[in-house]
Write a structure and sequence with these properties.
Layout lengths: L3 H12 L4 H8 L3 H10 L20 H10 L5 H10 L6 H11 L18 E11 L9 E10 L5 E6 L4 H15 L5 E4 L6 E2 L9 E2 L1 H10 L2 E4 L9 H15 L7 H14 L13 H8 L15 E6 L5 E4 L2 E4 L8 E6 L3 E6 L2 E7 L7 E2 L6 H5 L21 H14 L1
Parallel strand pairs: 1-4, 4-7, 10-14
Antiparallel strand pairs: 1-2, 2-3, 5-6, 8-11, 9-10, 11-12, 12-13
C-alpha cells in the first residue's frame, strides 16, 4: 500500500510518459502495484481507524464521577487539587471539559455589578451548616458560619460559631477588624436579628441594636441594612457562602468546632484569599494589601460591650451563660446573681460586689472553674468514715514505744 505522496509521484511519472518498469524502479514498488494505481487513478488511500488514545484525565474519571455524583456542587478548583494529590499532571481545562460532560451547567443569572471604593464597605451575614463530628456517632450538630468580606478586594474573614447571639456577633466583629488591621467605613447586614430590630420598611426608619451602634461608634463604622428582595446588594457575601460550602465544607471531616476553624483558617490562607478572583480578575490577597491602607485605623482599645442578666446559682455552685457553666467562690450566699457578659469575659456579681471573672467559653456545655473556688469540696470526707479533726489548743499525748509493746503482748494473751 502506498501513501498519497507516492501515489501522486506514480501518476506524475506516468503522465510524463515513463514506462511501468521505469516508474517501479524509481519508486521502489512492484510493477503490479504501479499498474494497479495507474489503473485506479487519483483515489485517496484508505487507512484503518486509529485506536483511541488514553487521555490524561482518563485514570481519574471514575473518581471524578463518584465525587460529582455525591457532591454536585464541588468546585472544579477543589476537584483539581484532589486529583493532583492522586497523581494528575494535566491542566484545569481538560478537567473542566470533562466536568461539563458529567454535570449540567447552572442556569444563567443576570445581576448588576456594584463595586465599592477601597476601605468603604464590608458585608456580614450568618449561614447555617449541619455537621457530624467524627467523635459523635449519629449526632448531627447545627453550627453557624459568621463571615465578613471586604467589598473592594473581596478579602474574606470567617469563623464557625455555635451561637448567633449578640456577644458572638460583637466578638466576631472585633476579631475580623483585628485580622484586617483596620475598619471599613460601613458594614452591610442582611437583616440579621442581632443587628437589625424588625424588618426594614420604606415607611419606617430602620432600628439597629443599641450595642451594635455603640460598637460602630467605637470603631468608626456605620451599619446599613440590605433592602428586602434585592439580591444584588448582598451578593458579595452570599456568593462566598456558596463558595465555602462547595470548595471547603463538603466532603470533609471534623473532630469538633475548633478543628473546623483550624481547617477553615488554613483554607482561607492557602486557597480562598490567594486565588484569582473571577470578578475582579486580581489575586485577592494582593488586592487586599492595597486596600488595607484605605481602612480606618483601629482604636487604642477593644470594644467592651456589657450585657447584664440575672442567673440562678446551681447546686454545683455555677451559673449558666450561653449554654456554658461558670463557677463562683465557695460561701456565695445569694441564689440569684448578676452576670455581665462582654465579647471576651463573664463577670459575676453578688449584691453589687464582683466575685468572679471568667474568660468567655465559645462552645456548649463547657465548664470554667477558677482556682480557689472549690476549697470546701477538697475537705469533704466520706460520710461513713468521719474524719477526726484536731481543734486549736488540743495537745496530743506522747508515749514511749514500750507502752505499745506491752499492749501488743496483752492482746496476744487474750487470743
Amino acid at each position: 500500500m502506498v501513501n498519497l505522496k507516492e501515489l501522486m509521484m506514480i501518476l506524475e511519472l506516468h503522465r510524463q510518459g515513463l514506462s511501468v518498469s521505469a516508474i517501479a524502479e524509481r519508486t521502489g514498488h512492484d510493477r503490479k502495484t504501479v499498474r494497479k494505481y495507474i489503473r485506479q487513478g487519483l483515489v485517496a488511500p484508505k487507512y484503518k481507524p486509529r485506536q483511541p488514545r488514553a487521555t490524561v484525565i482518563e485514570p481519574f474519571e471514575a473518581f471524578l464521577r463518584e465525587r460529582v455524583a455525591a457532591w454536585p456542587e464541588l468546585t472544579g478548583a477543589r476537584l483539581l487539587r484532589e486529583i493532583r494529590e492522586l497523581g494528575y499532571r494535566g491542566g484545569k481545562t481538560v478537567l473542566n471539559d470533562f466536568l461539563r460532560e458529567v454535570r449540567p451547567p447552572p442556569a444563567p443569572t443576570f445581576e448588576l455589578r456594584f463595586e465599592t471604593p477601597p476601605g468603604r464597605q464590608a458585608q456580614v451575614d450568618f449561614a447555617e451548616f449541619k455537621v457530624q463530628f467524627t467523635g459523635e456517632q449519629d449526632v448531627q450538630r447545627k453550627v453557624w458560619l459568621f463571615a465578613m468580606v471586604l467589598g473592594h478586594s473581596r478579602y474574606l474573614w470567617a469563623q464557625f460559631v455555635l451561637h448567633q447571639d449578640l456577644p458572638t456577633v460583637l466578638r466576631c466583629h472585633i476579631e475580623a477588624f483585628e485580622h484586617f488591621g483596620g475598619v471599613p467605613r460601613e458594614i452591610l447586614y442582611d437583616r440579621m436579628k442581632t443587628a437589625v430590630l424588625g424588618e426594614p420598611d420604606e415607611d419606617k426608619p430602620i432600628v439597629y441594636n443599641a450595642k451594635l451602634l455603640a460598637c460602630g461608634a467605637h470603631y468608626g463604622f456605620v451599619p446599613r441594612a440590605c433592602q428586602p428582595y434585592r439580591a444584588q446588594t448582598k451578593g458579595k457575601i452570599e456568593r462566598p457562602y456558596r463558595y465555602i460550602r462547595a470548595d471547603f465544607f463538603m466532603a470533609r471531616s471534623f473532630t469538633d468546632i475548633q478543628d473546623m476553624n483550624r481547617q477553615l483558617r488554613h483554607w482561607l490562607d492557602t486557597v480562598a484569599n490567594v486565588r484569582l478572583h473571577g470578578t475582579t480578575d486580581r489575586i485577592v490577597a494582593e488586592h487586599f494589601a492595597q486596600e488595607r491602607s484605605s481602612l480606618q485605623t483601629l482604636p487604642a482599645g477593644r470594644f467592651d460591650a456589657v450585657l447584664r442578666v440575672q442567673r440562678r446559682l446551681s447546686h454545683e455552685g455555677c451559673v449558666s451563660v450561653g449554654g456554658n457553666y461558670y463557677s463562683v467562690p465557695d460561701g456565695t450566699r445569694a441564689r440569684v446573681l448578676e452576670v455581665e457578659s462582654t465579647p471576651h469575659q463573664v463577670r459575676i456579681h453578688e449584691n453589687g460586689k464582683l466575685i468572679a471573672v471568667h474568660a468567655l467559653l465559645h462552645g456548649r456545655k463547657q465548664r470554667s472553674v477558677l482556682p480557689g473556688h472549690r476549697q470546701v469540696a477538697r475537705g469533704v470526707q466520706h460520710r461513713d468514715k468521719p474524719a477526726v479533726r484536731l481543734l486549736p489548743g488540743h495537745a496530743v499525748a506522747t508515749r514511749s514505744l514500750g507502752v505499745y509493746e506491752q499492749i501488743a503482748r496483752q492482746l496476744g494473751g487474750l487470743r
